[in-house]
Design brief:
One of its GO terms (molecular function) is [acyl-carrier-protein] S-malonyltransferase activity. The protein has about 325 residues and is an alpha/beta fold. The protein folds into two domains: about 240 residues, Malonyl-Coenzyme A Acyl Carrier Protein, domain 2, CATH 3.40.366.10; about 70 residues, 2-Layer Sandwich (Alpha-Beta Plaits), CATH 3.30.70.250. Strand 4 and strand 5 form a beta hairpin.
Length: about 325
């Protein structure tokens, strides 16, 4: 479907597509879809040729899958493969696109703002820069549950005053769910404080503390690569992570992608924006169902669909076509 056709089809729908970020990867992802739809392996071949190594093999074998510089291009490619299957099967073009962290790049590819080849090269570099910005073992991330956002911020500030580094809110995922990132000792301290204050704390199995000030050196280098990459405004609006807004020009888009490395992901506000625009159905276009489950908590979202298997894909296709009045 051309960019103009996508734009026209998207204007009359109440559906949004959500693209997941790092953490959604799993060994063997999309294997079932690949058996039924040739476009899956074709998409992985296209992306692999761009980065110079076999992304499908990593996805299926799991070898090196959790290394950030591999995870990012593999996940992006998986999401775009699923997006292409959806369109090939006659799925509705959504009114909005949004991606969580890395998923913002998937959203931009789906919206024809960046080519798949350029995007996988960008996120491969992004992963390398993020990995090298903080020595192994010195950074950490943790999910803080059952506390107000303001209280989590207070706990971070109390620890930061001690002058041993920094810890910050990295992802505002939903009410009562904030991910923090920073120096490992300070992340550990906030986790303990959260538990003492009646909250829950879960350490995340990541090697890189994303979306915090420790990533500023990586962002400075990454900005140069963004400047050299052909980018257009997307044909379907993409809601940006850093401000839950839509870019008005390409310079703004590049700036937001750079800032995304060291600023928090405003996912709660992103989902509120979709609700305010009358979105009633969301589709998670990537492995798993983390974003779909978060969306189900929201009062105005009637249905949230993962589409990472053939049965899930078909269920979502039919349900949304019926809900949108395209078929009886």
């Amino acid at each position: 479907m051309s960019a103009k056709q996508l734009e026209q089809a998207a204007q009359a729908t109440k559906t949004a597509f959500l693209f997941p970020g790092q953490g959604s990867q799993k060994v063997g992802m999309l294997a079932e879809l690949a058996e039924q739809f040739a476009v899956v392996t074709e998409t992985f071949t296209e992306a692999s040729e761009a980065v110079g190594f076999d992304l499908w093999n990593i996805a299926q074998s799991g070898e090196g899958l959790n290394q950030t510089e591999n995870t990012q291009p593999v996940l992006l490619t998986a999401s775009i493969a699923m997006w292409r299957v959806w369109l090939d099967l006659g799925g509705i073009a959504p009114k909005y696109l949004a991606g969580h962290s890395l998923g913002e790049y998937s959203a931009l590819v789906a919206g024809n703002a960046i080519s798949l080849a350029d995007a996988v090269k960008l996120v491969h570099l992004r992963g390398q820069l993020m990995q090298s910005a903080v020595p192994q073992g010195q950074g950490a991330m943790a999910a803080i549950l059952s506390l107000e956002d303001a209280r989590v911020i207070e706990l971070c500030e109390q620890v930061n005053i001690q002058g041993r580094g920094s810890v910050e809110a990295a992802n505002y995922n939903a009410q009562g769910q904030v991910v923090i990132a920073g120096d490992k000792t300070l992340v550990d301290a906030v986790m303990e404080s959260a538990k003492e204050n009646g909250g829950k704390a879960i350490a995340l199995p990541v090697s890189v503390p994303s979306h915090c000030s420790l990533m500023k050196p990586a962002a400075e280098q990454f900005a140069q690569a963004l400047e050299q990459t052909a980018i257009e405004l997307p044909s379907i609006p993409v809601i940006q992570n850093v401000n839950a807004a839509i870019a008005t020009d390409v310079a703004n888009l590049r700036q937001a992608l750079t800032a995304q490395l060291y600023q928090s992901v405003q996912w709660t506000k992103t989902m509120q924006y979709l609700q305010d625009q009358g979105i009633q159905y969301v589709v998670e276009c990537g492995p798993g169902n983390v974003l779909a489950n978060l969306a189900k908590r929201l009062p105005n979202i009637e249905k949230a669909f993962p589409i990472d298997t053939q049965s899930r894909m078909e269920d979502a296709l039919n349900a949304i076509l019926v809900a949108e009045g395209k078929i009886a």
